[in-house]
Amino acid sequence: MNKLTILAAGLTLALAIPAHAQDLPKLTVYTYDSFVSDWGPGPSIEKAFEATCECDLDLVGAGDGAALLTRLQLEGTRTEADIALGLDTNLIARANATGLFTNYANRPERLDVPITWTDDTFLPYDWGYFAFVYDNTKISNVPNNFEALIAMPDDFKIVIQDPRSSTPGLGLLLWVKEAYGDRAPEIWAGLAPKILTVTAGWSEAYGMFTDGEADMVLSYTTSPAYHIIAEGDETKSAAKFDEGHYMQIEVAAKLASTDQPKLADQFLEFMTSNEFQSIIPTTNWMYPAVIPTNGLPKGFEKLITPSKSLIISADKAQMVRDEALAEWLTALSQ
Amino acid sequence: MAHSSQPIRPIHFILGGSAFALLLLLTLGTVIALWWHAETSVALTPSDWSIIQFTIVQALASASISIIIAIPTARALSRRNFRGRQIILTIMGAPFILPSIVAILGILAVWGRSGYISDLIANFGVGPINIYGFGGVVLAHVFFNIPLATRIFLQGWSAIPIEHFRLSAQLGINTAGITRHLERPMLHAAVPGAFLLIFLLCVSSFTVALALGGGPKATTIELAIYQALRFDFNLAKASQLAMIQFALCVVLGGLTILLSKPIHFSQGLDRKVERWDAHEIQYRIFDVFILTIVCLFLFLPLYSVLIRGIIPLFTLPATVWVAALNSITVALLSAIISVAMALTMSALIIRLAHKYQTASQAMEIVSFLTLAASPFVIGTGLFVITFPFISPFTIALPVTALVNAAMSLPFSLRMILPAMIRAESHNGRLADSLGMQTWTRFYIAIWPRLRQPVGFSAGLAAALSMGDLGVITLFAPPDVATLPLIMYRMMSSYQLEAAAGVALLLVSLSLSLFWIFDKGGRLEHNLR
Amino acid sequence: MSITLDKIKLSHGEFTLTADFKIKEGQKVALLGPSGGGKSTLLSTIAGFKIPDIGRVLYNEIDITNMPPAKRPIALLFQEHNLFPHLSVEKNVALGINPTLRLSALDIKVVKDALYRVGLDGQGQKMPFELSGGQQQRVALARCLLRKQPILCLDEPFAALGPALKREMLDLVKEIVDSTKATLLMVTHQPEDASYITDQTVLIADGQAHSPIETTKLLANPPIALAQYLGT
C-alpha cells in the first residue's frame, strides 16, 4: 500500500510541473516525423514564425504522410490540430472525403509547382520526384527502368515503404500503375523477390539503406542533395528511369474544427512566403513550391531531372489507389 | 471444493461480480462489438487468404520445430548432472518474463544481415543471410518456445516415478529400452498439449511479424488487423479479421484446455538427477552436443543484448526515461488490476461453489476466455467501442494496463484460487468460530496464505505488461510511448545501438519488478 | 549370498545413516523402525541406488560398493510403482527374463508358471490399471521370482494390503526364499510382519542401523528406542 501512495504522489507531481504560463495563443500543426526532427525544417520554421506571430507554434510529428491523415480521422472533430502539413496530392481526395478540412483564406500570388494549382483547400509547400537511391561506389550496373530492375539478380535488394502508411510508398504504387497500367501486377511480381522488406515509413527504409542493409531505397531525386550539401558525400545518386518519374506535391490545409482560424490562415500565408520557402531545400530536401529569391542552393544542379513527369490528378488518384493497392497486396503475397 | 458453508455477502457479489462483468466485457463484449461492426458480407480477398495461410503455416512450422528440438534437450537435461544445470533450468523458466521485442533485437544481432553469423560466413564468401519473412518469423518463434516446450517435457520426465528408473536399472533395461518404456508413454501424453499450446501462441503472434515480417507475404492476422486500423482506417476489415482470429483461437484454445495437463511452473525441476542409464559415450556426446547447440541458440541473442546495451544505456535520450515511467505505471496498474480481479473472482467462486456448482465452474471457464481472445481482438474491440465517444489516444495507457491485466488473469487465477481454497479450508472455520468479520477475517485468516501466490502473480502480470507491444501500438499517439514502443521505433529507424540500451533497461526493469513482487510475497509474514 | 556393510556412512541433506554389520547367506532379515529412520535409504544403499560417503558394501566378501545396480545380483520390490503402466501383466513379468522383451516360447511358459505361482493364473493379458493394488504387487513378486537372484529386498511391499492378504503374500515370499535359499531383506514398520517370517531384525532408528539381533529376542526385550516406538 505504501509503495502505491508514493508512486501516486510522484506521478501527480510530475504531471503538475510543465504548466508554464501560456498567455500566447497556441497553433498546433500535425506533420510527419522527419519534418519535426532536429535536422528537418521544424526548428527553423518554428523560430521564424514565432518571431512574427506572437503565438506558440507546436509542431507534432504523427508518423508518415498517410499515417498523419489516419490519425486525424481517428481523432475526428475532437482533434487539437489546427493545421495538417504533409499530405500529398494522392491523399487529397481521401482527405476531402473526411470533411475535416476547410478552405484557406488567401491565395498566394504565385506558385512554382509544375502543374496549375486550382485547389482551394490544400496548399502546396514543396514538391519532388520519387526515385530509387543507391550508392554509386557499390553499384556500377544501375537499372534504368523498372524492367531492368526486375532483371537484376535476386540478391540485389531494395527496401520500400507500405503505401497505406507512407506517401513515398503510395507514390511508388501509383508510379508503377501510371507507367504500366494493366501490366502493373506483372511488374510487382517481378519486383517481389528483390524486396528486402516493406517498412511503415520513409525514415526506417532510408536508415536501412544508409546502414548498408539494402542496395536501393525508394526515396526522392533530391535525397542525394542532402549527402552532397550537408555531408560533402557524393556517393549517393538517384537512378533515372526512362518511364519517367512520379511527382509528389506536398500540401497543407486548415482543419475546420480549429479554434485559431485567423492564426491558421496566417501560418498558411507564411508557408508560401520567401522566408519559409528558403528554409525548405536544405532541411526538407525537396523543391520549394515558391522558388526563393536567392534561387536553389548550389548542389541541386547535380540532381537528375526526369525526362517525363508522371502524376495522376487528385480526384482520380483515390480510385486508382484502391485498385493498385489490391494488385500490390496480391502480387506481394505470393 | 470448499467445505465451509460461507455465506455470500453483498460485498462478494459487488466486487467479484464486477470483476466477472469486466472480464466478460473485455472478451465476449469486444468480440460482439466487432461482429456488429464487421461487414461479414464482404468477401475475403486473396490477400486475406494468404494472410490466414501464412499465419497457420508459420505456427505449424514453429510448433513442430520447437517440439522436435525440445525433446532431446529435455531428455539431456533430465539425465545429466553437471555444474550449471540449475542455472540453465532457471533461465529456461524465464521465457514469459522476457519482452519479445528485446529477444528480437538479440536475434537480429546474431542472425541479421549485419549480425554475427553473416559476418562469420562472409569469410567463406557466402552472402549475408536474410531472415526477413517466413524464415525469420519461424526462427523467432522457435526461440521463444523451445524453453516452454523443454519445461513441459522436463515436467513430464520428473513426473515419472523414481521407482521406474530404479527398476529399469535393476532389470538391466538399456537406454533404448528406457526410451521405449518410460519416455515414449510420457511423450504421448505431453506432446499434443504442448504442440497445441505453442501453436496457439504462434498463431496470435504480433511483435515477431511486425519486426521480422518483411512485407505482405509475411503478415499474420494480428499484424493485418493493426495495419487495417492504423494505416488504413478500415474498421470493417479490422473487425472482420479480428473475428477470424477469435474463431481460430477459440478452437485452438478449447483443444488445448481439453488435451493438455495443467502446467506447474515452479514445481519439481530441482529434484536431484538419479539416473543409471545413458553412460555410454555416444549418448554423452549427443547430450553435450544438443545442450551446447540449444544453449548457444538461446543465450547468444540474450548475451548480445546485454553487452550491446551497457554503453548506450548511459546516453539515452530523455524521452526514454519518460517512456520508462509510463511503462512502470502501466505495469503496476496491470498487476493491481489482475490480482484484484483474481482475488475477488476467487472469493465469489468459492462461495458460489457450495450452492451453485455450475455457476462457479462457468466463472472459471470465462477466465480462460482471454486465452482465446488475443490482446489485439480485445484492443480492437475496445477501440471500436470507445472511438465514437473519446479519442483513442487519450486512453492509451489505461487501456494497455486493463488488457494486459486480462491477459495475465488466467495465470493469476490459477495460482490464487487453489491457494484461497486451501486457506479457507484450513483457517476459514476457525476464523468463523472466533467471530471474525469480513476484513479482519480476510487479513488475518486468509491473506497470509495468499501472499506468495499473489506476489508471484503480481510479479508475472507486471513483467508481462512491461514487455507489451500489442495494444499500445494500437492506441498510442506518436508522442506517448512505453519502453517497448520506443524500442521498436528505434529499431525501425535503424538506431540499433540506442535500441540495445533501451532493451537492457527494459529487461532490467521487468526482472526487477518481478523479483520485488515475488520476494515481497515470500517475506516473513508472522504476526508477533 | 552374504551382505556386509563395512562402516558405511551416508549423508543426505541433514540426515545421516550409519551401519556396520553382516548378514549371513540365506538369512531372513527384517529392517524395523519408525518412519523417517532410514530404512529405505539403507535398502537403496545395498541395492546400489545410493553410494555411501564412507565405507564399503560387500556381497560374499567381494567389494561391490561402486558396482552399478544393474550388475548387482539383487531383486527389489518397491512399495508402489513396480509395474510399467503401459505394458501388460505378462510383459511386465517377462522383463525379469529379458529386458528387451524378446521372448522365446519357453520364456513365455516360464512367465505363465510364475503368474500361476502367485495366484494370478490367466491374468497375463490384463493391464496394470485393471488390477487391484494387491494383485499388482503379486505381479511384481512374480517377476522377482523369475530373476532368481540370491538377494531379495522388499520395501514395505504389502503395507497397503489387508491382514489376511498380507499373510498370504508373506507365506509366498517365505516359500520362494526357502526354495531358492536366497537372502531376504524386508523393510517394515510392523513388528508382527517381522516376527511372522524373519529370523533376524536390524533396528534402524535416527539414522543408526544396529547389528542384526534374533527377532524374537529383540521383540521380547526391546531396547529403549524400539520400546518407545512399540509403546511397551
Concise account of the structure shown:
The complex is a heterotrimer of chains A (334), B (528) and C (232). Chain A is an alpha/beta fold and 334 residues long. Helix content of chain A is 40%, strand content 20%.
**Which parts of chain A are unreliable, with pLDDT below 50 for 5 consecutive residues or more?**
17-21
Biggest sheet descriptor of chain A: 12 strands, mixed
What is the count of distinct domains of chain B?
2
Instruction: Indicate the radius of gyration of chain A in whole angstroms.
Output: 21 Å
Number of domains of chain A: 2
What best-fitting shape of chain B do the alpha-carbon axes yield? globular
Q: In angstroms, what separates the terminal alpha carbons of chain A?
A: 56 Å
Which CATH architecture of the largest domain in chain B is right? Orthogonal Bundle
Percent of residues in helices of chain A comes to 40-55%
How would a crystallographer describe the biggest sheet of chain B?
none
Question: Which CATH-level-2 architecture of the largest domain in chain A?
Answer: 3-Layer(aba) Sandwich
Question: What is the N-to-C order of secondary-structure elements of chain A (H for helix, E for strand)?
Answer: HEHHEHEHEEHEHHEHEHEEHHEEH
- Which structural class best describes the helix and strand composition of chain B? mainly alpha
Helix-strand string of chain B: HHHHHHHHHHHHHHHHHHHHH
Strand content of chain B: under 5%
In whole angstroms, the N-to-C terminal distance of chain B is 32 Å
Number of helices of chain A: 13
CATH top level class name of the largest domain in chain A:
Alpha Beta
User: Strand-residue fraction of chain A?
Assistant: 15-25%
Number of strands of chain A: 12
User: Uncertain spans of chain B, ≥5 residues at pLDDT below 50?
Assistant: none
List keywords for this structure.
heterotrimer, A: 334 residues, alpha/beta, D-Maltodextrin-Binding Protein, domain 2, 2 domains, 12-stranded mixed beta sheet, 13 helices, 12 strands, globular, C: 232 residues, Rossmann fold, 11-stranded mixed beta sheet
